Structure formats: structure tokens, C-alpha cells
Amino acid sequence: MADTLTQNGTTTAHGQTIQFPRLNEPAPDFEAPTTHGVRRLSDYKGRWLVLFSHPADFTPVCTTEFLGFSKHYEEFQAMNCDLLGLSIDSNYSHLAWVRNIKEKFGIDVPFPIIADLSMNVASKYGMVQPGASDTAAVRAVFVIDDKGILRAMIYYPLTNGRAIPEVLRLVKALQTTDRYGVATPEGWHPGDKVIVPPPGTAEEAEARMNEGYECVDWYFCKKELPL
Hints:
By secondary structure, the protein is of the alpha+beta class. It has helices spanning 60-71, 73-78, 91-105, 120-124, 164-180, 202-208; strands spanning 4-5, 10-13, 16-19, 31-32, 39-40, 48-53, 81-87, 113-115, 139-144, 150-156, 194-195, 214-217, 220-223.
């Protein structure tokens, strides 16, 4: 059976239906047990949230990612952004793994981890994909803004770990877009020039080159942001 994508954000793969959230729409709601008690999406209202899944506890690639997220935790917090992990493991497994990371690597994991044995949250976010595994969540990252809107999604295969600085950079870029009404170019970091939205009318296009921006052409202009 061929894979098919429907208009309601679901896909049929190998006879199984997978639901995928959609950008710029409300993130799927959830209530789930975690290593820090029950967490709901509404708990994060007014704050940004990076919700990320990993295939399994006590696995080497996932361990490196949790070390990375933990080391950058304060940087996320400084951006009004929380972290929330998830895998299809029990809370007991999560707690044992967190304790093991502290014992073996000397790193405290400061954020909650959802225990999703029912696959309820994983299913809502399209984290379980039969082409990769029927029993484990792929490495997915969801950036949810302070209004509960899903702003970005990144999916990785089971075999390859994420670069946490890229997740940080993405959150910073999204917040900059919201604050200044601009876009950010490839590889943008705070302090770099940003992209001015292209003009929408012939009159605006004619005027663009004389508006004081750094322009290559009428549709491609950059500017510096205030420090």
C-alpha cells in the first residue's frame, strides 16, 4: 500500500494512520505523567516550549542528546523557553536513566521527561513512524511558542543525534522574527543582519532600493537590528 497524505494532517503508511501536527496551528494538547509530575500543554502558557522525543532510555545516542540539552538548559531558560522530553518508556525507566546520567556523567537532567507508554502524546505529534519503528519514537523536535502555536518541527532518524545549538538558534530566530517582523538568513545568529520582508507592490518595489537597507536587488535586502 502506498503512503498517502490527507488534508487533515494524517498519513497512511503500511496500513497504519499517523497524525502529524501542522505549523502555525495550535499544538496538540496533552496531559501526561513525567519525572516532575503531571504536565499539560497549558502549563507552558506564556512561555516557549521545546518538546522533543527520543527512541529509548539507556541508549548511547539519546544519552549524548540529553547531556547536550542539559548543558544548554540555562540558555533556553534565559529565552523564556522550557524543555520537555518524551519517550515510550515508563517513568521508572526515566528516573533510573536520569540517576545513571548523574552518576556516570556528572550531569543533572533539569527538565521533565514524559512517560508515554500509551503512545498517546507520540501519536498526536507523529513521533511514531512505521518506516522507522513501530515501537519507538523517532528523534523529533517541536518548537511551540508562548501562545501555544506550533512554530517549527524537525525530525531525525533513529541513528543520528541532534545538534542542540541548532535548536537554540532556531528558537532565537523565531523570537527575533516575532519581535521585529523580519526573516533570518541561513546560519543566522544574534548580531547578524536580518532579511527585510520583500515588498508586496510595484510601488514598494520601486522605493525599496532607496529606503536605506543593504540591498542586492529590490527583493533581497538586509538590515541590522538594534543592539
